[in-house]
Specification:
The complex is a heterodimer of chains A (about 325) and B (about 375). Chain A is mainly α. Chain A has a single domain, classed as Orthogonal Bundle (ABC transporter involved in vitamin B12 uptake, BtuC), CATH 1.10.3470. Chain A is built from twelve helices and no strands. In chain A, helix 1 (about 1-30) runs parallel beside helix 6, helix 1 crosses helix 10 and helix 6 crosses helix 7 (about 175-185). The longest helix of chain A has 30 residues, at about 1-30. The radius of gyration of chain A is 20 Å and the shape is globular. The radius of gyration of chain B is 22 Å and the shape is globular. Chain B has about 375 residues and is mainly alpha-helical. The chains are: A mainly alpha (about 325), B mainly alpha (about 375). Chains A and B meet through helix 3, helix 4, helix 10 and helix 12 of A and helix 5, helix 6, helix 11, helix 14 and helix 15 of B.
Chain lengths: ~325, ~375
C-alpha cells in the first residue's frame, strides 16, 4: 500500500505541475481584478510554441533547444494575453467574453499554424525522455516520508513549481507591489486615489498570468506528451481555474489544491489496484476537481475569499 | 462623449473586421485569401466559382442550413440568459445532457414514429434545463458567479455522459465508442431533396425556438420582468419582481434551448448515442452567435446563419488549401471585436469628428 503511494506520488505531482503554474497565473490576474478565463487558451499557445520550436530547433541541432522553446513559450503567452489585457483594461470589454474569444482563437490558431508549419493537425513528435531526467533533491529527499513523497524522483519542473508558488506568495503578500496589486482587485477607485496606477498594475498582472499559463502549457506538453495536438491541453486551463478557486485565490492554497487535483487524476488509473476504490468508475475521479470546486464555492459563499472587484470593469470616472 | 450606435452597426463592423483578420492570417502564411470568399459563396449558393460549368448544387446551401440549426438554438440559449443578466457558458454541458437524455429515450423507450423523435427532443430539452438549474439556483440564492459553475458543469457532463452511456445504454460492439444505432422510429425525416445532405425537419425546432424566444421576451410580462432583472437587479426587486425565481427560470429555459439542440444534432446527424471525448463547441458557438446577434431573436437568427455558413464552409476551405481552423479564427476575431465595441465606438467618433472638422473648414474656406 505504501509502495503504491510512493509510486503514485511522482505521477500525481507531474500532473499537478501545469495546474499549479497556470493556477498561480490566475491568482495574479484575479487578485488584480481581471478575470482571465483565457488561461486555457494561453496554455494552448504555450504548449504549441514550446513543442513546435523544440521540433524545429532540435532538427537544426541547436544545443539547449528546450530552454529556448520554454522561453519562447513564455514570451508568446505574454504577447497573446496582451490582447485580453488590452480588451478588458483599456477597451472596457466584458472580461468573460474577451477571454472566451481568446480561447476559441487559441484553438484555431495553434492548429492552423501546425498545418502550415508541419503539414498536418499536430506538431511532429519530439523525443521524450531525453528532455528531462527525473532527479532527487540531495538533502531534502532524506527527510522521512516528506522527502520520499515530495523530493524524490521528480521532474525538475516539479521542484521549480514549489519555488514558484513560494515566490508568488512572497511577491503578492510581502512586497509593496503585491499589496498594490491586491488593492486593485478589491477597490480600484480607492487604490487610484492613493496614487496607484490601476490600469498599469492590472496590465502587469495579466501579462504575468499569461506568461505563467503558457509556461504551464509548455510544462504539460513537454513532460507528459510527445507532440502537440488539438487535444493536448484538454481543458486543463479550466481545471487550473478550479485550482485557483479551491486554493482560495492564494498561491500556497493553489499549490496544495493542485497536488490534490493531480492526485485525483492519477487515482483514476489505479482504481483496480486499490481494493478500497475498486467499485468506483474511473470517470468519477475525472469529475472530482469540478464537483469539489462547486461544493467549495457553495461553502465559501457569503465569505470574502475572492477579490471583491474581480471581473468588474474599471472606469476611472466612477467613484 | 460617445454617440449612440446601433447594435447592428457594431456587429457589421465586427464581422467585416473579423473576416479581414482571417484574410490577414492567410496572407501572412502565404495562402490566397480570395479562396475564403470562393468557399463562402459555394456554401451559400451551391455555385462553384472555380468551375461554373457544374451549375448549382443545392446540397451546399442545405448543409449550410443544417449547421445553422443547432447554433441558432444555442445562440438563443446564451441570449436568453444574457437578457436576464447572466452569462451562459455552460452550453457544452447542457448540449451533452440533452443528447444523453435523447439517446436514452431513443434506445430504451418504445414509441411509434413521429411521436418518438418528439419525445426524444422533449427529453433533451428537459435534461438541458435540469443541467442549467444548478448555476441558476446558486446564482440566485447564494450569489455565486454562474460562469464558474457553468464551466464546472460542462466537464462534469463530459465524464458523466461517458459513465452513463457505458453503464446503462447498449454499446456498439464493433467500435465500443458509441451506442448501437437508434431504432427506425427515431428519425427527423429527410429534407435533402435528393442530395447527400443530412438536412432534416429539425429545422422546425430552430424556427419555433426563434418565435418562442421572441414571444416570451418581447410579448409577455414574464419576459418583461426577466429583462428588468437583467437591466437592474435591485430596481426590479424593489418593483416587486421575483428576481430569484426569474434567475433560475431564465437559466433553465436557456438550458432547454441548448438541450433541444443536442437532441436534434444527435438524431439528425449521428443516429446513435455518443460518448463525447471533447466538446463539440456548439455551446461556445452559441456565445458568438448571441453576442453578434445582440441577444435579440432576429439578431440571433441572422448571426446563427452567418456562423453556420462559416462552419459549413470548413470542408470547402480544406479543399481550397486553407486550414479549416481559419473559420474558428474568424469567429473568435468577430467575438473579440464585439467585445471591444467601446473601442470601435471611439474610432467611429473620431471619424465622425474628422468629417465634421473637414466640413467646417470647407465652409469657412
Amino acid at each position: 500500500m505504501l509502495d503504491l503511494i510512493y509510486e503514485m506520488f511522482p505521477l500525481a505531482l507531474t500532473s499537478s505541475v501545469p495546474l499549479i503554474i497556470t493556477g498561480l497565473g490566475g491568482v495574479f490576474s484575479e487578485r488584480s481584478g481581471v478575470v482571465n478565463i483565457a488561461l486555457d487558451g494561453c496554455m494552448q499557445i504555450g504548449g504549441f510554441v514550446a513543442a513546435a520550436l523544440l521540433v524545429i530547433l532540435d532538427g537544426m541541432g541547436v544545443p539547449g533547444a528546450i530552454w529556448y522553446s520554454i522561453l519562447a513559450a513564455i514570451i508568446a503567452g505574454g504577447v497573446f494575453v496582451a490582447i485580453h489585457a488590452f480588451a478588458s483594461i483599456n477597451m472596457r470589454a466584458d472580461q468573460t467574453v474577451s477571454g472566451t474569444a481568446l480561447n476559441i482563437f487559441a484553438g484555431g490558431l495553434t492548429i492552423t499554424l501546425c498545418e502550415i508549419i508541419f503539414g498536418h493537425k499536430s506538431t511532429t513528435a519530439y523525443s521524450l525522455g531525453a528532455i528531462f531526467p527525473r532527479i532527487s533533491i540531495p538533502i531534502l529527499s532524506d527527510i522521512p516520508i516528506i522527502g520520499d513523497l515530495f523530493f524524490t524522483n521528480n521532474y525538475p519542473f516539479t521542484y521549480f513549481t514549489y519555488v514558484l508558488a513560494i515566490f508568488a506568495w512572497f511577491m503578492l503578500y510581502k512586497t509593496a507591489f503585491g499589496l498594490r496589486l491586491r488593492s486593485c482587485g478589491e477597490y480600484p477607485q480607492a487604490s487610484a486615489s492613493m496614487g496607484i496606477k490601476v490600469q498599469r498594475t492590472r496590465w502587469i498582472a495579466v501579462l504575468i498570468s499569461g506568461m505563467l499559463s503558457a509556461l504551464g502549457g509548455a510544462a504539460l506538453v513537454l513532460t507528459t506528451q510527445t507532440y502537440f495536438h488539438g487535444g493536448s491541453i484538454n481543458g486543463l486551463g479550466f481545471v487550473a481555474i478550479a485550482t485557483m478557486i479551491f486554493g482560495r485565490w492564494h498561491p500556497i492554497g493553489c499549490l496544495f489544491t493542485g497536488m490534490l487535483f493531480g492526485f485525483s487524476q492519477v487515482l483514476g488509473y489505479y482504481t483496480n489496484s486499490l481494493p478500497l476504490l475498486a467499485g468506483i468508475p474511473s470517470q468519477f475521479f475525472s469529475m472530482f476537481p469540478y464537483i469539489l470546486t462547486i461544493i467549495v464555492l457553495v461553502l465559501f459563499s457569503g465569505k470574502s475569499f475572492g477579490p471583491k472587484a474581480s471581473g468588474e470593469i474599471y472606469d476611472p470616472g466612477k467613484r | 462623449m460617445t454617440r449612440r450606435y446601433s447594435k447592428l452597426t457594431i456587429s457589421l463592423i465586427a464581422v467585416v473586421l473579423g473576416i479581414l483578420v482571417g484574410c490577414l492570417i492567410l496572407v501572412i502564411t502565404g495562402r490566397n485569401p480570395v479562396n475564403i470568399f470562393i468557399a463562402l459563396i459555394r456554401s451559400l449558393t451551391g455555385f462553384s466559382v472555380n468551375n461554373p460549368a457544374r451549375g448549382i448544387n443545392i446540397m451546399y446551401p442545405l448543409n449550410w442550413l443544417l449547421s445553422s440549426v443547432p447554433i441558432i438554438l444555442t445562440g438563443l440559449s446564451v441570449a436568453f440568459a444574457y437578457r436576464t443578466g447572466m452569462f451562459n457558458i455552460g452550453g457544452e454541458g447542457q448540449f451533452i445532457a440533452g443528447s444523453l437524455a435523447c439517446a436514452t429515450v431513443a434506445l430504451l423507450v418504445d414509441l411509434p414514429p413521429v411521436i418518438h423523435p418528439i419525445a426524444c427532443i422533449l427529453a433533451g430539452g428537459i435534461a438541458g434545463a435540469l443541467w442549467a438549474f444548478l448555476p441558476g439556483f446558486l446564482k440566485a440564492f447564494r450569489n455565486i458567479n454562474e460562469v464558474v459553475i457553468c464551466v464546472m458543469m460542462n466537464y462534469i457532463a463530459l465524464y458523466f455522459n461517458d459513465w452513463f452511456v457505458r453503464s446503462f445504454l447498449p454499446i456498439d460492439k464493433l467500435t465500443l465508442a458509441r451506442t448501437v444505432a437508434f431504432p427506425e422510429t427515431v428519425s427527423l425525416g429527410d429534407l435533402s431533396f435528393g442530395t447527400a445532405s443530412q438536412f432534416n425537419y429539425g429545422v422546425i425546432f430552430a424556427i419555433l425556438g426563434v418565435i418562442i424566444f421572441w414571444f416570451i421576451m418581447e410579448k409577455t410580462t414574464f419576459g418583461y420582468s426577466l429583462r428588468a432583472t437583467g437591466f437592474n437587479s435591485e430596481g426590479s426587486r424593489y418593483a416587486g419582481m421575483k428576481n430569484r425565481r426569474n434567475t433560475v427560470l431564465s437559466m433553465m429555459i436557456a438550458g432547454a434551448f441548448t438541450g433541444v439542440a443536442g437532441a436534434i444534432v444527435i438524431i439528425g446527424s449521428y443516429g446513435y448515442g455518443r460518448i463525447f471525448t471533447a466538446f463539440d463547441n456548439y455551446g461556445f458557438d452559441g456565445i458568438s452567435v448571441a453576442l453578434v446577434g445582440g441577444s435579440s431573436a432576429g439578431g440571433v437568427l441572422a448571426a446563427g446563419l452567418l456562423f453556420g455558413l462559416m462552419n459549413a464552409s470548413e470542408t470547402q476551405f480544406q479543399i481550397l488549401g486553407i486550414p479549416s481552423e481559419v473559420s474558428d479564427n474568424i469567429q473568435a476575431a468577430i467575438v473579440f471585436f464585439v467585445a471591444i465595441q467601446y473601442g470601435i465606438k471611439i474610432v467611429l467618433d473620431l471619424i465622425g469628428k474628422h468629417r465634421m472638422n473637414k466640413k467646417v473648414k470647407e465652409e469657412v474656406a
